[in-house]
Amino acid sequence: MGRPPRLLCCLFLSLSLAAVARAATRHHEWEISYQFKHSDCVRKLAVTINGQTPGPTIRATQGDTVVVRVKNSLLTENVAIHWHGIRQIGTPWADGTEGVTQCPILPGDVFTYTFVVDRPGTYMYHAHYGMQRSAGLNGLIVVAAAPGAAEPFAYDGEHSVLLNDWWHKSTYEQAAGLAAAPIVWVGEPQSLLINGRGRFANCSGMAAGACNAAHPECAAQVFAVVPGKTYRFRIASVTSLSALNFEIEGHQMTVVEADGHYVKPFVVKNLNIYSGETYSVLIKADQDPNRNYWLASNVVSRKPSTATGTAVLSYYGGRSSPRRPPPTTPPTGPAWNDTMYRFKQSVATVAHPAHVEPPPPRADRAILLLNTQNKIDGRIKWALNNVSFTLPHTPYLVAMKNGLLGAFDQRPPPETYAHRGYDIYAVQKNPNTTTSNGLYRLRFGSVVDVVLQNTNMLDANKSETHPWHLHGHDFWVLGYGIGRFDPAVHPATYNLRDPILKNTVAVHPYGWTALRFKADNPGVWAFHCHIEAHFFMGMGIVFEEGVERVAELPREIMGCGNKSNGH
Amino acid sequence: MGRPPRLLCCLFLSLSLAAVARAATRHHEWEISYQFKHSDCVRKLAVTINGQTPGPTIRATQGDTVVVRVKNSLLTENVAIHWHGIRQIGTPWADGTEGVTQCPILPGDVFTYTFVVDRPGTYMYHAHYGMQRSAGLNGLIVVAAAPGAAEPFAYDGEHSVLLNDWWHKSTYEQAAGLAAAPIVWVGEPQSLLINGRGRFANCSGMAAGACNAAHPECAAQVFAVVPGKTYRFRIASVTSLSALNFEIEGHQMTVVEADGHYVKPFVVKNLNIYSGETYSVLIKADQDPNRNYWLASNVVSRKPSTATGTAVLSYYGGRSSPRRPPPTTPPTGPAWNDTMYRFKQSVATVAHPAHVEPPPPRADRAILLLNTQNKIDGRIKWALNNVSFTLPHTPYLVAMKNGLLGAFDQRPPPETYAHRGYDIYAVQKNPNTTTSNGLYRLRFGSVVDVVLQNTNMLDANKSETHPWHLHGHDFWVLGYGIGRFDPAVHPATYNLRDPILKNTVAVHPYGWTALRFKADNPGVWAFHCHIEAHFFMGMGIVFEEGVERVAELPREIMGCGNKSNGH
């Protein structure tokens, strides 16, 4: 106002120069290979990064450029890595989604992912090819707030917790079983891992040499805290199947971040977390420092048959050795089938008052997706509006930038289903479905609503939780419901005031979830259930927006399908 | 001579026209996928062709063109298929050797192998990528003699026998174990298969559902014969590890073909057969038709810990049901460590007098290869003249036709070793070795001798049998010896009169084998131990000859390495 415009201009310039000077490039050299690991004390071949599973945590500061040079040293198997929660603005070819944004990386090949981490928060990475994620290729991305950017909470220290579920059978066996008729289901996980460490409950019952309960790779992780201090726990779930409940025995948690966005703080005894989600919670180290406490991960939403995954919280200076098991039984979490308990926690997760990014007041387009379990030729599939998704042979991004119209089905999938009178509580009368690799083309800059409607499965009285993950965007979570979504009624109940932005959201049993996003990131983006088997069985769709604005593609992503040398 | 030349000319012309008219094209459509199989009654994920392991037998007539359209439907894994024994004259890019003649076939890709089967005989095919062969991708190629071309023996019917060894652990586990330090060795096979069928000895000791002794996929194959008739048995071994001895109880065998070449007939009670070899034997159905007889496959050369692989010979019209087990114990073969027994059978295998193709009287070049077991950084390797072979990232054929000099080591590997005074019976004093992907460039049309010298392994008093297989050629087997080969002495003992032509030959424990071939097939050709783990650990070399004469390469083989879109 009184300030001369020139000074203002100079101030902006110097700020932006400072930002440029601050932004660093974080280089990583990764070699992907199979190694024998004892993640839950049982010897298993795992896909590792530099010999580790989980892989190294990527640490960066908002605005940094992350460069990961991936060398595929698997023998006969390709690979692709997705940077889950990173929007890849301007770099849609670095999203790592095989079949959507790139061809896979061949054995012996090196592929360099380069992208900017433009927002602070907790994210993750994992393989996005076949069912490779569950073979062990996963890890955390932690982006610190830019210096000077205040976060709406304070803490003295931080810890990271990566939750996973773990099978002794290979992903090949899992995938071949899912594709078989009749289906051969791998079953519930053998173990739950915290930071890649678990403890198979039946170790002593295994053949000699197969399980080693004393193996250092399966020693429980110890999280040390100083009495009286406050800690931020960054928690991510990369499970293949399981919805989890996470608890730190004796310590209430204040939820402050979800998927990289600040949450209006609320206190919970334990946290429900679905595959693909991240949270930050604060805990105060205010309990008796002379004993240890359990960190516990329990299966919810499916009837559990897997032992509680555990780690240990230990106080510095207390009289208990950090390695000593707590004197209690690990928490077992809420009743696995208490849907309302989880539903309420979902609803409670809204934006922090000081960090509300209001959604556009209305959408240009609304897509209503009926999630059903189906059959094709006797094989069990998942479908949206009765279309089961398949990946094309040529990645969409490559096909669309090169005008390869024959590379995928040019007919768009259905926008809605016959929702009037549809009984979501009944087994579908005719479960037969069809497959398609068609995609939804979105007008660039338009506002899109998606409502995900959950239903009964092929078995009576059964409906699961599906965590849906959107690539390339965050979306506003406008509402949740249990029962059938009615487009004439429920939009009026949407939270347009302070909805949280997320990249992954739960659709509860027999429930619906409504979300909104702006189609303003040029590229092709997958949107799918983050349960690995469900996406493999067709539970996903793909959006395209502004692909004509995407810069020239790197040749490195094109080594397959119709655009490769092979055709 | 009184015949007018014009008539002779016309006769030739019409013969050759007839030959052209006769040559057929044999089309095959193959889909490669993982399927659960019960090859030895134990449920295991196998790489299958059209759902089968072994794959379908390719049947053709000499001069036919075989076209195999391979669709890779593995989820994340590439594939390449080698046509073992087919010389690929004019089609070196169709040899199917990943890293040598082609890039692997990606999931979802289709690759068409087209080649001429120019000689009659018994051949095989199998994966030639990583250790995929042992995952089940293998089968037979049977090429009938051209109509009118008389074979030097007669028979009334024929049967085919494909021998294999079988593990319950996946090839991933096998390969990861071989590459580990210290090595994790998968051990001896669980079963020996005849035509893909075996019987795990400890079925009842396995977990419920893991082994089903009544599964039809592991029911023993029955070979039916008519009393009094003579049968040709075509026998091939595609084992990953095992040297085998094959016997048909109560029936002497007359060996008449080896690797597609007619053998001076000799009679054996049982046949030693090494991985990569094929034989035809004749048997007379002249025994009591009212009982059945065992076909038996036994491990030799390594101390066996695998039960005899069995099938059944049954007489038509006899009083025994074809399914009834013979009343005897299956033959157990010769003593596993009777090297001389096997050595003599190797030496006895010479060309049929009416089908001798005399070798060139002398070689232009002689390469002496010391086969040793070595170590690199604590990892066990195999080496030739102290160089352990590794495959380049860009296939040689692609690299050389495109002048990509940086794609592999341009320095040729050593031609010989310090053989004077070398103690082949001792453990090497310094087992450390180096790796290379250099190759041997051969003058086009030159005659090359190779002598393979076997030695003691890293353990004292141990030397194995190595079956060496040459791609793109047959070679004359000039001689075998036990002990150290002396270039000043042993060449004088070479059989230049009637050596058999083969593509695979045994190098016996502590022995040497000398062979000669003409470098007259433009291309790049692997020459390696056919034990899959040994090649994986470096036991191979590569020859190049006349690569400048190779026609333009199909683009389909180039989708990897320095020549792909990715670089």
From TrEMBL, chains A, B:
CDD domains: CuRO_3_AAO. Residues 315-334 are annotated as: Disordered. It is found in: Secreted. Keywords: Copper, Disulfide bond, Metal-binding, Oxidoreductase, Repeat, Secreted, Signal. The keyword Disulfide bond applies. It is an enzyme of class 1 (oxidoreductase). Residues 323-333 have a biased composition (Pro residues). The keyword Ribonucleoprotein does not apply. Its EC number is 1.10.3.3. Dimer. PANTHER family: L-ASCORBATE OXIDASE, MULTI-COPPER OXIDASE. This is L-ascorbate oxidase.
